[in-house]
């Protein structure tokens, strides 16, 4: 399975960007996507930005990544999706 990580662009030179997300900072290749301004968000896979992200996409992606980590440890993930559980019909 391939996973992308949402990261915020801290600075960019048009070829690479210094990005931060999920407690880490790294230099990311941004040549495959349209220019993303400083403060913008990108989905990063293998140190390459694969697409720009809208701000409203970041939190759900981070919750999904948190759920994967917790589920791998056998822990409950319901609290991460309480908004979905509330709207589910029996």
Describe the structure.
With 90 residues, the chain is an alpha+beta fold. Helix content is 27%, strand content 34%. It has two helices and five strands, in the order E-E-E-E-E-H-H. The chain has helices spanning 55-72, 82-87; strands at 5-12, 16-21, 24-29, 41-45, 48-53. It has a five-stranded antiparallel sheet with strand order 3-2-1-4-5, covered by helices on one side. The chain is elongated and about 45 Å long. The mean pLDDT is 91.
Give a short overview.
It contains two helices and five strands.
Notable characteristics:
five-stranded antiparallel β-sheet, about 35% strand, single chain, 2 helices, alpha+beta, about 90 residues
Secondary-structure map:
Elements: E1 5-12, E2 16-21, E3 24-29, E4 41-45, E5 48-53, H1 55-72, H2 82-87
Antiparallel strand pairs: 1-2, 1-4, 2-3, 4-5
């Amino acid at each position: 399975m391939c996973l992308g990580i949402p990261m915020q662009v801290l600075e960019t030179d048009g070829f690479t960007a210094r990005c931060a997300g999920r407690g880490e900072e790294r230099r990311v290749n941004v040549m495959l996507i349209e220019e993303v301004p400083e403060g913008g968000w990108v989905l990063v896979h293998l140190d390459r930005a694969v697409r720009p992200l809208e701000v409203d996409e970041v939190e759900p992606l981070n919750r999904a990544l948190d759920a994967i980590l917790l589920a791998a440890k056998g822990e409950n993930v319901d609290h991460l999706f309480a908004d979905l559980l509330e709207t589910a019909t029996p």
